[in-house]
Amino acid sequence: MTFTRTIRRVAQGLLLLALPLVWTLPAQAQEPIRIGSFLSVTGPASFLGDPELKTLEMQIEKINADGGVLGRKLQLIAYDDAGDAEKARTFAKRLIEQDKVDVIVGGSTTGATMAAVPLVEQAGVPFISLAGAVVIIEPVKKWVFKTPHTDRMACEKIFVDVKARGLSRVALISGSGGFDKSMRAECLKVAPNYGMQVVADETYGAADTDMTAQLTKIKASNAQAVLNAGFGQGPAIVTRNYRQVGITLPLYQSHGVASKEYIKLSGDAAEGVRLPAAALLVADLLAANDPQKPVVTGYRDAYEKRHKSDVSTFGGHAFDGLMIAVGAIKAAGSTDPAKVRDAIEATRGFMGTAGVVNMSATDHMGLDLSAFRMLEVKGGTWSLVK
């Protein structure tokens, strides 16, 4: 046998040995289900993105340990947009075009979310946002959904409580961010529906560290209650300045500050402040037969045990978004984007940390006003307003 023939036979033998390995690869290692996310993990909105990322990581690890979804593991591909809308757009494009994700659960802020909306609509990728403004889902966008209560709902819940106190004249103070502007506009829009008269309307900038000038004007008005539409550190500054200028009227904040961090930043000045929020913050105060109690206590206990920090409603938004996406993939029986989108839209009776979700073709959030609880700061912690 010549040397050439020997080499040829050895090569053929190696090829035959290799073929069974190639044939069995698809059965042994299925492609993971890719969950894409862009979140404000650092920057001014890190109080949103940090617990959201931690929640996604924690839940995906748990789901994979339990066998995954449709026999496949979940893979999280997440980017930190640092609260920058342009970065969010870049990362959303990367998730769609390079990472080839099956669904996106993310968008900590309204600005970041809206920057990504045109991309997911064009590409046809299911997107569940974690941001608050109503503009995300109104008008309805085919591929876009959201989990948090809207800013309009927050206005309505607050005005119901103001009215129950026998008051009708409200002063507004709001920040300059996307959520702040949107909530201010929604409050002005729905105020007449609840018999509310807006008698003052002040604003502050994102970098402002003192709002006493605006609050002094509000103090001089004939307002009976004050509503601060905003999130981040601004509302804590407003709260401290509120007490410093001697205003004794009821003060309301948005669900954008629904975490213990707001109370810590505000100190004693937060005492008596009310805001609408998810039941997650008062899980132990819920009645034993409340169907939401096992959901919120289960998530809270798992999060706080793992991260040794207080739970926030923002992490809860990520929990709800991921579980809705997972439920839709299971219902669709595949990761086909159109089928998953349809299954998300068909979500009914899902009990999440935000409340019961009943989506439809005309409602891509699925929460009603009953999903909000009115909370009040008492003794440095949250209490339920009866």
Provide a short characterization of the protein structure.
This protein has 2 domains: 33-149 and 292-369, Rossmann fold; 152-277, Response regulator (Rossmann fold), CATH 3.40.50.
Number of strands: 14
Order of helices and strands: HEHEHEHEEHEHEHEHEHEHHHEEEE
What is the rounded distance between the termini? 95 Å
CATH architecture of the largest domain: 3-Layer(aba) Sandwich
Share of helix, binned:
40-55%
The number of helices is 12
Supply the CATH class of the largest domain. Answer: Alpha Beta
Number of domains: 2
Radius of gyration: 24 Å
* Largest sheet geometry: 5 strands, parallel
| CATH fold category name of the largest domain | Rossmann fold
Unreliable residue stretches: 1-28
Shape descriptor: globular
Strand content: 15-25%
CATH superfamily of the largest domain: Response regulator
Specify the structural class.
alpha/beta
What does it look like?
With 386 residues, this protein is of the alpha/beta class. The chain folds into two domains: 33-149 and 292-369, Rossmann fold; 152-277, Response regulator (Rossmann fold, 3-Layer(aba) Sandwich). Helices cover 44% and strands 16% of the residues. It contains twelve helices and 14 strands. The protein has helices at 3-28, 46-65, 85-97, 110-123, 151-164, 178-190, 212-220, 234-244, 260-266, 293-307, 313-332, 337-345, and strands at 33-39, 74-80, 103-106, 127-129, 144-146, 169-174, 197-203, 225-229, 251-253, 274-277, 350-351, 356-357, 373-378, 381-384. The strands form four sheets. The protein has a five-stranded parallel sheet with strand order 2-1-3-4-5, with helices on both faces. Helix 2 (46-65) links the parallel strand 1 (33-39) and strand 2. The chain is globular, with a radius of gyration of 24 Å. The chain starts with a helix and ends with a strand.
